Amino acid sequence: MEDEKKHDASKEATHEKQGFLKWNGKPYWVEISNGVLSWFKAPGDGVPKGTVDLLLCTAKEYPERPTLFDVISPVHSMNFEAPSLEEAAGWLGVIRTAIYNQLETHKKIQRETQQPNDLQGKFSPLSQLILADESNKE
């Protein structure tokens, strides 16, 4: 039992989760791993029915129906129903943490790929484009 708790805690620490959720009244096996939400017809299916990178997503709760929540992306709006309040809270926590981690990773990559002589902030956006285009011609 204690090993089981450690295993669950380590999954939460890595911000991953999996389990059944209802989507439009139908049960789907849903997984969150590495900032990506995937849904399957059944556990063990090799190919997901769909995936959503959580980078540009938001999570919405419904206080009047606390087992319901939405994951909204630029492409999909998914209305999920968890089997219990505790499960809904767990899913929302992992989803929000995954969104945060995706945003932080994206910011870190942007910082690491900026050139030391980056023109950002020194010129207008149009001037930056013109100067960047000129430097690419050289």
Brief overview:
The chain is an alpha+beta fold and 138 residues long. The chain is built from three helices and seven strands, in the order H-E-E-E-E-E-E-E-H-H.
Summary tags:
seven-stranded antiparallel β-sheet, PH-like_dom_sf, disordered N terminus, 138 residues, 3 helices, elongated, PH-domain like, alpha+beta
How would you explain this protein's 3D organization?
- It is a single chain.
- This protein is α+β, with helices and mostly antiparallel strands.
- The chain has one domain: PH-domain like (Roll), CATH 2.30.29.30.
- Helices cover 39% and strands 28% of the residues.
- The protein has 3 helices and 7 strands, in the order H-E-E-E-E-E-E-E-H-H.
- Strands 4-3-2-1-7-6-5 form a 7-stranded antiparallel sheet, with helices on one face.
- Strand 2 and strand 3 form a beta hairpin.
- The longest helix is centred in the C-terminal third of the chain and has 29 residues.
- The protein is elongated and about 55 Å long.
- The N terminus is likely disordered.
